Amino acid sequence: MFRTDRASRRNVLTAGLAGLLLGGLGAARIHAAPRAAATSAKLAGAFVNWGAVGRERMLQAWEKWLGQKPSSVLGVDFYGQTTWDDFHKLNLAPGLWQKLNPARNVVWSVPLTITGTPLTEIVDGLHDAEFEAAARAISQAQPRAIIRLGWEMNISDKGWFTKDHEADYIRAFRRVVGIFRRHSSEFKIDWCPSWGPQESPADLAYPGDDVVDYIGLDVYDFKHEGTIEERWQNAFLKAPFGLEWHRDFAARHNKPMSFPEWGVGNAGDNPFFIRKMRDWFAENDERIVYAAYFDVDGAWPTQIDNNQFPQSQRLFRKLFSR
Are 117 and 123 a contacting pair, CB within 8 Å? Predict the structure, then answer.
């Protein structure tokens, strides 16, 4: 019901990286909003475009746009997507982040398998070498990185979709976490479903407190029936596996929350969503370790610093500036 298909945009981004490495709310309502308090850098992270030489340069521009301190926000990136060869061919990407800015920490979204490869092969260790390559490359460049492994497992466009395969997902997840932790004891593991009921109950695929450090949730302003207020209540805040579920589930497991992806766009220019997300972050600030805006267009536009969503852009900059 709330499916958000972003596979195509990530494939395009991965292809571009490989190529480079290898060869509706009224303005009056916005005006009436009170001035926001300064936002902590932990809430101002972003997944940004590749740019001319790498995401680090684009993230520096993002920090400057928001008035955040240099190197203070988390960057987000994706490690491999299409083939197992990507796990070896793209191992220069973490090093490029490190070369451009050794002070930057990165959230690495690592696929749990590649489309066409069943999770049972991961469980049996048939692709340990690929995960070893990824863990080695990331640990050498960002030894304190956040590893968002097998994210959005409750959406069927993922090769690691968990419906009727929850046990395989859990065993595969646990095996790969062991590989990453052998390369750096400082890695933090982020388990991150997509918000809402989606196509499979997220909690059935929880791999265990011993292999999870953060419990994440990806949240996008997606088209739904009703007013923007009703959509917020029914599709985000109180939806099955929505924001309140995320808060309560993380609390039950004594884990901090994260928001590795969030954004407007599918439902148009909606500053109401921006404000409500910022309010939710503020309400739960002590339990949130980071949030990152998806500032890249793909399956639908989400970039917020290029004037395509002017009302949302103005409010976002106001609310997420230091």
Answer: no
